[in-house]
Amino acid sequence: MKRTVLLLLALAALLPLQAQRIHAYVSAGGIASQIEGDELKGFNHWGFSGGVGAIANLDDNGTWALTVETGYSGRGVYNNRHSAENLYNININLHYIDIPVTLLFKDPYGGLRIGVGLVYSRLVQQPHDSIAFRPTFFAPDTSDMTFLKNDLAPAVECRFTIWRNLQMSVRYQYSVIPVKKGWGFTENKGKATEKSWSNDCYNQAVTFRLIWEFGDDGNSRSRYRSR
């Protein structure tokens, strides 16, 4: 983990050789997530997301930029519905350290930034929360709730300026490697035989953040829009 952070910081340090400038920024916000493969639907788990990063313009007019970040995000799965159709109740919190790398394109007239990238995440705390279900109907296997340490997710992001240095960011990401393999489920509707199966599980999340970019008072964005 430390080697990965040092490598990314070294990459950011070399960017001034080709970039016009580098600005640091801080971010904070919320993240809505779910675990694909848990047989539940909806982004019902909400957590905190925040961190620090650096953005480097890759050309003179700032059309292309590269960002490197490190931060925390709380992802997982949550379901607490009281209805006959509810399969089971669950509350699992997954605590991650994230390292997103994103290539951004900025509209020179409107100032909107759109980007694609990769988010590497390291699980720093295993879940120790509650799982409640009706075993006579539908039961997830709770004998082993260990999640895998590493997560890798492609991401798309949109950023726009609210006022001067303050920006809003919306990012969507979906894991390409399982965060839990072979999570087992059984279903029994009163019949003599049960239906059993297992799913590989993947993180899926939408992050909403406020970003404060240091050293940028918004003049560069207005200059590009005026061209």
Summed up, what is this model?
The chain is mostly beta strands and 227 residues long. Helices cover 9% and strands 58% of the residues. The protein is built from 2 helices and 11 strands, in the order H-E-E-E-E-E-E-E-E-E-E-E-H.
Can you give the mean pLDDT?
84
The CA-CA distance between the termini, in Å, is 44 Å
Strand order in the sheet with the most strands: 1-2-3-4-5-8-9-11
Structural class, judged by helices and strands?
Answer: mainly beta
Strand content: over 45%
What percentage of residues falls in helices of 4 or more residues?
under 10%
Largest sheet: 8 strands, antiparallel, barrel
In oligomeric terms, what are we looking at?
single chain
Global outline: elongated
Low-confidence stretches: 14-20, 219-227
Q: What is the H/E string? A: HEEEEEEEEEEEH
Please tally the helical runs, counting DSSP H or I stretches of 4 or more residues. 2
Over all CA atoms, what is the radius of gyration? 21 Å
What is the count of β-strands?
11
